[in-house]
């Protein structure tokens, strides 16, 4: 599988960090320079670390490990669902519910409720109920779908988490760390590399940057899965 060229990284704007005053000093080793008060990431390191992440995910996929994609920001939401589905993995792309992993038993009960309501919808049970009750169940179903649709087939805790925007998903990061779930994450200049297992320095705000990196990671998961 072809590696992404530095020209592709540049074109996608992977090198653009945040304004200099918003940086996390721990990201210093990955920063190439400061230009117009904006930090520019070192793309050579980004490419090397993406390759490392790709190899890790491919190897994990060959071992039939499961993956959870996490990214709830507007720019990442659609891409997270799209790429997770492409490699038959799980995802959270709307809202991270506190305790989603650490309180797994409770989450499973909510997934059971989601499946019950979905079956009722298929069986047209809602049409037989009083209008108010039907409306309440439909609202509940919509909310559960939005929050849990990407994990409703997840029987156990995932083996690996892939995260977009560490700062926004800090609750998810903490839960993964507490449970010893390895984390692969795009890290912008305001992130903490100590909180993840495999950092990929890159712009986590631009759609093209997220898409380029996420697609590469998914391609390698698929490659690993094809060898099982």
UniProtKB/TrEMBL annotation:
Gene3D superfamilies: Glucose-6-phosphate isomerase like protein, domain 1 (3.40.50.10490), Helix hairpin bin (1.10.287.610). GO terms for cellular component: chloroplast; mitochondrial small ribosomal subunit. GO terms for molecular function: structural constituent of ribosome. This is Small ribosomal subunit protein uS2c. Belongs to the universal ribosomal protein uS2 family. Its main location: plastid. It is found in: Plastid, Chloroplast. The keyword Transcription does not apply. It comes from Rhizosolenia fallax. The keyword Ribonucleoprotein applies.
């Amino acid at each position: 599988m072809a590696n992404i060229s530095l020209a592709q990284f540049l074109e996608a704007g992977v090198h653009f960090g945040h304004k200099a005053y918003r940086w996390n000093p721990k990201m210093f080793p990955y920063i190439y320079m400061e230009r117009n008060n904006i930090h520019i990431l070192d793309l050579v390191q980004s490419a090397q670390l993406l390759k490392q992440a790709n190899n890790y995910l491919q190897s994990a996929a060959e071992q039939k490990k499961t993956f959870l994609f996490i990214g709830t920001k507007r720019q990442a939401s659609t891409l997270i669902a799209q790429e997770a589905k492409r490699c038959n993995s799980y995802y959270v792309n709307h809202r991270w519910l506190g305790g989603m992993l650490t309180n797994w038993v409770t989450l499973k009960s909510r997934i059971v409720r989601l499946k019950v309501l979905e079956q009722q919808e298929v069986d047209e049970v809602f049409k037989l109920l009083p209008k108010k009750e039907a409306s309440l169940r439909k609202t509940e179903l919509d909310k559960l779908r939005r929050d849990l649709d990407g994990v409703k087939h997840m029987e156990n805790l995932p083996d690996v988490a892939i995260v977009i925007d560490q700062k926004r998903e800090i609750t998810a990061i903490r839960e993964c760390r507490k449970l010893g779930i390895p984390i692969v994450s795009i890290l912008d200049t305001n992130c903490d590399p100590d909180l993840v297992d495999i950092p990929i320095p890159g712009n986590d705000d631009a759609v093209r940057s997220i898409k380029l990196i996420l697609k590469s990671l998914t391609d390698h998961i698929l490659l690993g899965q094809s060898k099982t």
